[in-house]
Amino acid sequence: MGFLGLSKGDARAYYLGTLVCLGGFLFGYDTGVVSGTITLESYKRSFGYTDASEDTNARISSLTVGLQQCGSFVGCFAIFPMASRFGRKLSMQLSALVFVIGAAIQTGDTHDLASFYVGRVVAGLGVGGASVLVPLYASEMSPKRLRGRIGSGYQFLFTANYGVNKHISPRLEKQWQIPISMQIIPGALLGLGMITVPESCRWLVQRERCDEAWESLTWIRASHGAEVQDEMNEIVTTVVLERNCSRNILRSRVSLYRLMLAFTVMVAQVCTGANALAYFSPQFFKLVVGDGTDNLLISGIFGAIKIVSCGVFIFFLSEKMGRRASFCGGAILMSACLLCVAIVDKLEPPLGDGVVSGAGIGVIALLFLTIIVYNMSWGPLGWIYIAEVLSPSTRDLGVAISLGTQWIFNIIWSVSTPYMINSLGWGTFLFFAIINACSAVFAWFFVRETMGKSLEEMEKEFNPDIYDENSEKSMV
């Protein structure tokens, strides 16, 4: 037994999972920190819009989040050909470097929103690249019994901006600069940490570098035994078999079904409303409890709940609850919670003036429950599921398409949510409740179970006829 009672192989797998969590920081912290920072008086003073109208504040909020999403969309597709040609490891390091540069640009107090917007776009390029590479690398390197736990680490977010914002004088620019600059830390650690791990064994096999692939696989499994040898043989067999069938791989109904499945899962994930809540949590809580309350404090608690609930899921439930049950049950519960929020907010509007009614407390509890359910279902599992259901030859492109579409919807919600809050009010919650109900129906009828199965076993499940035919030929 090794570190903390883990086998050497498990310890290495969890170390790789730690790097996955750092990749999650690039998305989670960068988007989460902005929702609180752009509401600070010190930030508004630095960029000269302290007396701006409500519409101007909504436009700045939309651009601040939306431009990062635009950069992420471009980065998502820009990194995919590089990952296919040069590997996951180098591509991940490049994404981390780009993100650090973007975070540094945002930290500078230039007194010019255009400069800050440029930093958002550049950081988004790195976020988009990492969003593609993390699921790919995690799914290709993790043992099947830990893949859900390790891959879900991308959702394992950390929210620290409340404590920094709250305890630095609002007269100082450091109040917003410190939480913004803290983004550099996970980006730098991710880039440097990738030096210590090998290239993806499955990518190396696809590039016909089997000796290096064997070294990579034996490193992450910490074994040269028969079980690892069987896994290596299975990987090679799957890649060779699919290469022989590659002429029709993109045209086959099964491949299109798998691409659409991954695509729809990511669209459903981003349309739960959880990301909108994360981006604009102070604005949402203002909607349900009114002015005069410490919405930044509530947002800080909201962020803490996200990481605790996601941590509970990763360490205790990720390999016990099936993917299909998690998706379906999660969507039903979120739909019910948001429907209740809409009804209460409609019938019992906030009192304002710093007074929170019993109905307001109940609504806050329901929103907290919504984000708990999200971080125990669609949040962590969406990232890993898309890589699990795609074939080796379509995995790079399929993940890029799925996440590219996800970024498009992120752009839509980041731009439209402030206006939805201002114009629809309680109807915003009803809207996301309906979407979640539709996602539950989709999960029940179309999602395939992948928990506990290797990527090669998923190939056999989706293409049983091809594998049976080739098995008969090999026996002959």
TrEMBL record:
> Pfam families under this entry?
Sugar_tr
Recorded GO MF terms: carbohydrate:proton symporter activity
Alphabetical keyword list: Membrane, Transmembrane, Transmembrane helix, Transport
Query: How is this protein situated with respect to the membrane?
Result: Multi-pass membrane protein
Task: Using the record, list the residue span of the signal peptide; answer none if the entry has no such feature.
Answer: none
Q: Enumerate the transmembrane spans.
A: 12-40, 90-108, 114-138, 256-277, 297-318, 325-344, 356-376, 397-416, 428-447
**Repeat recorded as keyword:** no
Which InterPro entries would you find in this protein's record? MFS_dom, MFS_sugar_transport-like, MFS_Sugar_Transporters, MFS_trans_sf, Sugar/inositol_transpt, Sugar_transporter_CS
Q: Which GO terms describe its cellular component?
A: membrane
User: Where is it localised?
Assistant: Membrane
What Gene3D superfamilies would the database entry show? MFS general substrate transporter like domains
Task: Tell me, in one coarse class, where this protein mainly resides.
Answer: membrane
Ranges for domain Major facilitator superfamily (MFS) profile come to 16-451
User: Mind telling me which PANTHER family this protein's record contains?
Assistant: PLASTIDIC GLUCOSE TRANSPORTER 4, QUINATE TRANSPORTER, PUTATIVE (AFU_ORTHOLOGUE AFUA_5G12950)-RELATED
Q: Which family does it belong to?
A: Belongs to the major facilitator superfamily. Sugar transporter (TC 2.A.1.1) family.
Q: What is this protein called?
A: Major facilitator superfamily (MFS) profile domain-containing protein
Q: Which source organism?
A: Penicillium argentinense
